[in-house]
Amino acid sequence: MRKLFYSLLIISTLIGSAQGLRELYQEGLQAYEQKNYELFNKRMYTIDSMRPNFPAVVYNLASSYALIGEPEKSLEVLNKYILMDATQDFSEDKDFIALSDLPSFQEIQTKQKQLTTIIEPSQTSEFSILTSHPESISYSDKQKAFFIGGARDGKIWKIVDGKSPQVWAESPKKSWSVMGLAVSNDQKVLWACTSSMDVYENYDQNEEGFASVLKYELKNGELLETYALPGGHNFGDLITDNQGNVYISDGTSNKLYWISEEKGELEVFADVSDRIFNLQGLTFDESQNAIYLSDYIDGIYQVDINTRKYNKLAIEAEDVLIKGIDGLYYYDGSLIGLHNGTKPNRVVRYYLSADGLKITGKEIIGQGGKLGEPTQGVWKKDKFHFIMNSPWGAYDKDGNFSPEGDKIAIGIIE
Hints:
18% of the residues lie in helices and 35% in strands. With 414 residues, it is of the alpha+beta class.
């Protein structure tokens, strides 16, 4: 058996802190060891219903269906599994022996090979600022410069076309890991959102869950305003509209915040915590009448700006599993998602229906290879530039930071 036997400590971290989930998982593994496959199936099914798309649970659920003699359900779940992790070799797992001669099982193996085929960007640029742990990126057309935010040192870097990176802003008070950047449409302001992360080199446990939004004057780097909140927050990304309003995603409280041009105050715009597990990237539609939000766990949502109501996008396409999207970007009737919660990591273009509420197709435009961990991106004219190798994996269990090399790679897709 090649079950994904994670320790209970890891399971408690990844499937949630609720005692019930940990107990259900332990009961399921014990049932498997006792060859009580019906109970094993029930426990994995229950966990997947409560906390969807956790790879170990989905894999175990697929094998449990095979063991209780339901091959069609097993194949359906196994197909779902390879969309989130195509690197696991399940072909020799004896739990699937009853499926091994089925054509659909062979088809899944063929699809698995396609999902591990390397697809790299047409161009890349490299800059020696990896030790800053770049996480966020924006671009100013007026200044012809990229701005990159560091998660480890809290600095903001400026990279003028053709020149070396320069520190544009240090980490001021009430500022931590720079998780999102956005240049205002009028090119006058650079907005940044920061969160107190344990990767921040000046991390203080007393500031756990603190977050802030910073407003800088773009022409000279002067800090104009700081909007800060105490514990229970994780500002991960932000966007600005044509009217000067700023919207911020909070992946801990799972609320969409905003700072309106009219009031200039940090407020909750929409509370999506009843549906979303882990709020990440956000992007406007073409009209700026709606915002798309990525839930790192379970899908993409659209928020109507006028009504503040939100809906999960329906999927009307084969082999689409929305999991592990960090940055999210609208482009010509589609959404580009930067997946760093799949194996291998991917950049995927999702095509939308005319009403923008359905995903009707997909195209993988980046996958594996040098892709590393993609986080956020920005449009520069008709080219999409994105951070390819944010070094989250360079920290050991004690928090020591040992990245490979010193260069951040920016992928370019036309």
